[in-house]
Specification:
The chain has 286 residues and is mainly beta. The chain has two domains: 3-64; 68-286, no CATH class. It has helices at 96-107, 122-136, 158-163, 270-277, and strands spanning 3-9, 15-19, 36-40, 44-50, 56-64, 69-71, 85-88, 140-142, 149-151, 168-175, 179-188, 195-199, 203-207, 216-218, 222-226, 231-240, 249-260. A six-stranded antiparallel beta barrel has the order 10-11-16-14-13-17. Strands 1-4-5 form a three-stranded antiparallel beta sheet, with no helix packed on it. α1 (96-107) packs across α2 (122-136). The longest helix has 15 residues, at 122-136.
Length: 286
Amino acid sequence: MNLKYVAKNPTPVAQTITLRQGLPLGDSGVCSTEPVTVQVPPMSIREILYDENGVPLVEGCVQDLTIAIENEAGTPIDPHSTRCERTVIQDVSGNRSELFVAQARRVYPSLVVEDAQNLGGAQLLAQFSHLRSERDNTTAIYSPAALNMTFESRTDSLYHAARLGQVQIQSITGNGFDSGNAVQMHITNSSSNPVHLVVPQGTMIEQQTWTGKQNLVVKEDVWIDIQPGQTGSFPLPAFCANASAGIPNNDPMNLTPFVFHDMGESFRDQQSMWRTTDSRRNVRMG
């Protein structure tokens, strides 16, 4: 049976992607035996096939990632949606950043947004929708799938525990990027049991307010252990998610449930991440 790796290109320009030697191939326990370089067309998915030993074979199919569903103004989108869709914004008058944030909250009414708990996601979807709208020459709120993200659903994740009140996130601060402590979290375990939680690689950390500064994406899985009744301080390594924005400088931020997809080398370094998220840097966040 063939194994495959799915390389995604959510940007409007072609991307050349190198899948490294030793790359894990899904949950098979098999790793690739040699590097493979492929070109992924704009707004597309390309499958790279391997045999049961991890030897690369011919390339698989190419799928279209362009918008499949165009919703009318105000139509909600399920944040768990795996469809590439968008909800148009008809009234485009007024401040553009305020417009996108208000519409994101309207389109995602079930998404938890609570700055006091440092939980969010609407701000992130608003900002990424703004950037993609500029690239697509439209005005719309996009689904996570159209922005190369999924809703993280792990029961052992920090987001899940904080959402259920098992732990309390006291603060999240963003300071710089592409470093081991670009994100600083303070978390309290008020329960009677120790907790062992993960912040998965690709977890998106959003700015609490639209300041024109970068959102951040966690570089690698980070495990958090806190004993009952204790508060811990936890640094997280993170890349900048927006080359077209300013650098976080002790900015209050929120944990979101959204995880950014690896295109094969997205998490190799900062430039690779920017090629994934902001292929056209003349499109500005602010």
